[in-house]
Specification:
Chains A, B: It catalyses: XMP + diphosphate = xanthine + 5-phospho-alpha-D-ribose 1-diphosphate. Chains A, B: Its main location: cytoplasm. Chains A, B: Keywords: Cytoplasm, Glycosyltransferase, Purine salvage, Transferase. Chains A, B: GO terms for molecular function: xanthine phosphoribosyltransferase activity. The structure is a homodimer of 197-residue chains. Chain A is α/β, with parallel strands linked by helices and 197 residues long. Chain A is 31% helix and 32% strand. In chain A, α2 crosses α3. The relative contact order of chain A is 0.17. Chains A and B meet through β3, α2, α3 and β5 of A and β3, α2, α3 and β5 of B.
Chain lengths: 197, 197
């Protein structure tokens, strides 16, 4: 997705060979027009998948997920990272290890909001080692629902999350695929670079 | 806002005289069409305030804030509830006590994303005792920016947050104002009830 790649080049900050900071438009400050375009792009890519529900995880997944949900005409459910006082019974729960934060969170979704006949599109901001996406798939599978696809805003293609997910048979669409962040430079994977030209 | 009141009557759950659960469309599952209408309503109410930035707090503030930002043509910044590894320097920080969760969180916003000349609209999902809104105002004021208004999706008008904020001189607009939750029934404040008829 050209608009997103350009935004990453212009406003992303490479902090190390592993870390791309996109706090300027996705993870802290949010550009709503870009989110709307991202929502439309997910809707285009998964238009034949008969999506009935979008599942994401707080907090940075919410903006792109809600914009996509608006396009699909479905609701979003966002997984919480820990239980709150008013949300403790009747939950699907999975454990997710965050390499960035070096901690394990329980993520949870109320059983009320995913059903067996749902075709779920999982949306998240980043895909690196795949832990969050695998946790979300686990929640959807606990409900007996179908994971119809995974939509990622930015995939760090040099980490193994993408291949783990694709090997499990699920369709993964990433709107920007980063081949490497070496030497402080963002390099996109080949077909994505071609798209920009 | 009639659409929101109807949604609360239909899908909200009164858990006690103090607690209204709206996990069906705002705090866990999100109805994106309703969020879009909420964004439009905020844009209408604050249209003369020359808003340049929207500030909210993760997680449930993000959806209404992003939709409002789209209408205003500005960006959103969401305050984080604790520091992450890639976001620790150069932050405005305030303490917020949550009565619901019975814990104090540090909320923070990067100094990069609020400037002295910003006219900020603060948006949040709920207003009860006002702690979160006061914390967000504090962050905006630390930046030397102007709090041009506070937009709330659901105000529990029987708690004192609304009067605390209004007494401080800031304009507060709540799209649904709840007079009481006694006896398991949602009662809206007078002018809101009149609006429904």
């Amino acid at each position: 997705m050209k608009l997103l790649q350009e935004k990453i080049m212009r406003e992303g900050k490479v902090l190390s060979d592993d870390v791309l900071k996109v706090d300027a438009f996705l993870n802290h400050q949010i550009d709503p027009v870009l989110m709307q375009e991202i929502g439309k792009e997910f809707a285009k890519r998964f238009k034949d998948e008969k999506i009935t529900k979008i599942v994401t995880i707080e907090s940075s997944g919410i903006a792109p997920a809600v914009m996509a949900a608006l396009e699909f005409g479905v609701t979003v459910v966002f997984a919480r990272k820990r239980k709150s006082l008013t949300l403790q019974d009747n939950m699907y729960i999975a454990k997710v290890y965050s390499y960035t934060k070096q901690e394990t969170n329980e993520i949870s979704i109320s059983k009320q909001y995913i059903h067996e006949d749902d075709r779920v599109l999982i949306i998240d901001d980043f895909l690196a080692n795949g832990q969050a996406a695998l946790g979300l798939m686990n929640l959807v599978q606990q409900a007996g629902a179908t994971v119809a696809g995974i939509g990622i805003v930015i995939e760090k293609a040099f980490q193994d999350g993408g291949s783990k997910l694709r090997e499990s048979g699920v369709r993964v669409e990433s709107l920007a695929e980063i081949a490497s962040l070496n030497n402080g430079t963002v390099r996109f994977v080949e077909h994505a670079v071609a798209e920009v030209k």
